[in-house]
Design brief:
The chain has 136 residues and is of the alpha+beta class. It has one domain: Alpha-Beta Plaits, CATH 3.30.70. The protein is built from five helices and four strands. The protein has a four-stranded antiparallel beta sheet with strand order 2-3-1-4, sandwiched between helices. Helix 1 runs antiparallel to helix 3 and helix 4 packs antiparallel against helix 5. The protein starts with a strand and ends with a helix. It holds the Pfam family Dabb. This is Stress-response A/B barrel domain-containing protein. It comes from Pelagomonas calceolata.
Length: 136
């Protein structure tokens, strides 16, 4: 079973990139220190529209082998430090944790992970995130 964690962040209006960069850099250190993470991607919105406050500013997609690994991540020092740096600038945070696209009634431990988590993330987060991940 693979657990996928998808987070979308939107900054408060007028937030300059310079004030969120330290928190984003701290997030970027997480896969180095937390080696149990299977996959970890961070990306800024690069939609062609470029309209602030129309969509989210940052997307994070992480994959974990087990729910215990995900819980461990939520308590990791770098994760907590990064969130502390970013929280004052957040207008919105949306997150979803999932094990599969289908078979909703089946327990996570018995589900078959999706064959393409990028497709799943695009469905959950919309076209903007899908475009972002397709370039990675």
């Amino acid at each position: 079973m693979t657990l996928t964690h998808v987070v979308l962040l939107q900054w408060k209006p007028g937030t300059p990139e310079s004030v969120v960069e330290p928190g984003l850099k701290k997030l970027g250190q997480i896969p180095v220190t937390e080696t149990y993470i299977l996959s970890y991607r961070i990306g800024k919105d690069d939609s062609e529209f470029g309209r602030r406050n129309m969509t989210h500013d940052v997307a994070i997609v992480a994959e974990f082998a087990t729910e215990d690994d995900y819980r461990r991540y939520t308590k990791a020092r770098n994760h907590l430090d990064a969130f502390g740096l970013l929280k004052p600038h957040l207008m919105r945070r949306h997150a979803v944790q999932t094990c599969a696209m289908m078979e909703w009634a089946t327990p996570c431990s018995q589900r078959t992970p999706p064959s393409n988590t990028r497709v799943f993330a695009a469905l959950v987060c919309g076209v903007a995130l899908g475009r972002l991940l397709a370039r990675r």
